[in-house]
Specification:
alpha+beta, 10 helices
């Protein structure tokens, strides 16, 4: 047995197989990776492999891109049985533990703890200041592992899903607001909204920093290509208050334009403008259903954005999984 550094792109295919085996929970099937999510993950990895020669060149030219994916793999007899993957948030000193997984038959052997320990030591060498991750509510072994390493709970989010039958009736846009299409590469609207609305308790581990939102220039040129080869249609809008011109809402839908996969929507809303909640949720759900060919639609909602959660349930979303957000200061 051995621990080695993640080796991309060589590890993409074996780790995809490992992820499909790992993220299944027979006692809680709602926690597991669904068939459409597996299809989406495999399509994304195939796209990433196709673009790897270009991405490798960008990593040489832009040091910050070398931190897009890092991690460690646990091998036994040459086969990967565990992995931990980390990502830097933009060019900040904040990192995310994106994936921690161990094959079911090798759990409770200390492998996940060893992988996390190696990852945290590596992040300290890279001058990381904060690390965050998400863990499924009631997944007590994982939660105990993270808190045992010093992580603290600072928030949470819920994953909603909708299996559409009919498109929703989109309510009229409330008076006093203007809607305009927005390019998904335009990070400024999301930054301006989050800078005003993210609660203070969230910022202790997940501060609103401009370098999280603003991608490195070379990465900005790469992302449209990735979207193109992934074959997804993605559209977004921003909502501005006419009285002062401030952006107060953002939404986007994303749907596959090929077989399989899952659609998704995302909504941000200033709590001072709650009358927009139903409009934003219904509008993007309607678009996802109309353009997504009847696929399941996912929506992640932070716990503090209660108006969006309530609106989602009014339009047919159900709560699938709740996650705790945990953070560690290094």
């Amino acid at each position: 047995m051995s621990i080695r550094a993640l080796d991309l792109p060589r590890d993409l295919a074996p780790l995809a197989d490992l992820a499909i085996r790992t993220f299944q929970y027979p006692e809680h099937p709602e926690w597991g990776m669904q068939r459409d999510e597996q299809e989406e993950m495999l399509r994304t990895l195939r796209s990433f492999r196709r673009l790897w020669p270009l991405f490798r060149g960008l990593r040489i030219l832009s040091p910050s891109l070398r931190d897009t994916y890092r991690g460690f793999v646990w091998e036994e007899e040459g086969e990967p049985i565990g992995v931990a993957v980390v990502q830097r948030r933009g060019t900040t000193a904040h990192w995310i533990i994106d994936t921690v997984g161990v094959a079911p038959e090798h759990r409770r052997k200390g492998i996940a703890r060893a992988l996390l320990t190696h990852s945290l030591e590596d992040l300290r060498r890279r001058a990381a200041r904060r690390v965050t991750l998400g863990v499924i509510d009631r997944n007590l072994p994982a939660y105990s592992l993270y808190t045992g390493l010093g992580f603290e709970t600072y928030g949470g989010s819920t994953k909603f899903e909708c299996r559409p039958q009919d498109a929703p009736c989109v309510p009229p846009r409330p008076a006093g607001y203007a809607v305009e299409p927005i390019r998904l590469s335009d990070w400024r609207v999301r930054y301006e909204i989050d800078r005003r609305i993210v609660p203070q308790e969230q910022r202790a581990y997940d501060p609103v920093e401009v370098n999280h939102y603003r991608p490195p220039r070379l990465l900005a040129s790469f992302l449209p290509l990735l979207r193109l080869v992934r074959r997804r249609e993605e559209r977004g809008i921003s909502v501005r208050r006419l009285s002062d011109g401030q952006p107060v809402g953002f939404g986007r839908y994303s749907v596959p334009k090929c077989e399989g996969g899952v659609s998704s929507i995302r909504v941000l809303l200033d709590p001072a403008c709650l009358e927009l909640a139903d409009y934003l949720v219904a509008y993007h759900l309607d678009r996802a259903i109309a353009r997504g060919g009847g696929r399941r639609v996912d929506l992640f909602v932070p716990d503090w954005m209660t108006a969006i959660a309530e609106s989602a349930e009014r339009f047919g979303f159900t709560r699938r999984v709740h996650y705790h957000s945990l953070g560690l200061t290094l």
